[in-house]
Amino acid sequence: MTFSKPLWRRLVLGAVTGTAAAVTFGGIPAASAAESYLSFSTDGTNFTSTLARPVFDQNLTLVPGTSTAGTIWVRNDGDDAAYLSAGAVATRMDPQLAGMLGVSGSAPSRNGKPVYLGPVGECAELYRGWEIPSGDAVRVALTAGLSPDAPNEARNRSAGFNVVFHLQAMDGTGTAPGACDALDTDAGTPVAPPEDENAGSSTGTDTGDAQPSRSNQPAAGRAPEAALAGFPATGIGPGQAVTSPEFNKILSPMDSGRPVQAVPAGFQSTVEPIIRSLSGTLLIVMSVAFFAAAGIRLRSRGQ
After folding, report:
1. CB 72 within 8 A of CB 290
2. What confidence tens digit (pLDDT) does each residue in 98-140 have?
3. CA–CA distances in Å: residue 219 to residues 33, 51, 76, 135
4. Could you report how far apart the first and last alpha carbons of the chain are, in Å?
5. Is 231 helix (H, G, I), strand (E, B) or coil?
6. N or C: less crowded end of the chain, CB within 10 Å?
7. From the CA atom positions of the chain, what is the Rg in Å?
């Protein structure tokens, strides 16, 4: 499938709480994204390009062997069917927690196995190839959990991760790159899970039976060759305000790992000027305010 409409890749960064004692999952609205082919909802009814509500319980405390689940609906706002994939990238990882923080993503009839996050910058693929028709949405159950094998040495340590969604137009072979492939990072090999492979795999009460509404759906545009939504996480203390200058910062276009046309100097951060001035296809990256990670403080087994 070919597309004549060039897209440009934009990344809006956010932040998430993260220390090591209880897992806190907070949500903060992100900057709105123009010309997005992905929209999101926490109730399956109201879709926007940003999220105002957190996906995970902000007051939950996790200890080794426990997990928490949250649900998000992801909708394809293009006018063609597309594949959705998801990945998780460690943004902060004390060595004692590497391989102990599990993340998984599942959709109705498509269960993703938990992956255990490794060193900072390593992307682990959660799932690849959820097919979403134009205008439809898929309900994705996200789970984060601590391995029961987490050692006492992991006390007072911290970790954080980003969750990214990648929407890729279907091609003639019926395949599409995953979210990790779309990032300008080395996907690497996910850390091998501990012996208990069920750790962090619970999906709570999410049954996948609800049908999301198409209300608030923007006018469908041309299906993107690729749209990537990032859910960033960084390590700050629970309850602390997000003061990082990187929060909601719009970065200049970056190489997505594919051949792209060079962006002229002085380019404004909008889609239309690029459409008028460039040829070829660029990757578009959109951010929402899903803050999927917070810190983790482990409790001693002896307590």
Report:
1. yes
2. 888 888 888 776 666 788 888 888 888 888 777 888 899 988 8
3. 15, 19, 11, 10
4. 58
5. strand
6. C
7. 19
Question: What DSSP state is assigned to residue 274?
Answer: H
pTM over 0.90: no
- Higher model confidence: residue 276 or residue 120? 120
Q: What are the b/e assignments for 96-128, b being 16+ CB within 10 Å?
A: bbbbbbbbbbbbeeeebebbbbbeeebbbbbbb
3-state secondary structure of 181: helix
Q: Are 90 and 183 in contact (CB under 8 A)?
A: no
Containing H/E element for 273? Answer: helix 272-277
Residues 6+ apart with CB under 8 A from 301: 64, 152
State CA 145 to chain mean position distance.
Answer: 16
Which residues on neighbouring strands pair with residue 228, listed in sequence order?
Answer: 166, 285
162, two tokens: 């980003």
Sheet of 115-116, strand order: 38-41, 67-76, 137-146, 101-106, 115-116
Cα–Cα distance list, 165 to 75, 136, 182, 203 (Å): 11, 16, 10, 18
Cβ distance 263 to 270 under 8 Å? no
Distance CA(222)–CA(227), nearest Å, equals 12
Q: Are 103 and 114 in contact (CB under 8 A)?
A: yes
Question: What's the pLDDT score for residue 136?
Answer: 92
Q: In 3D, which of 166, 212, 171, 169 has the Cα closest to residue 79?
A: 169
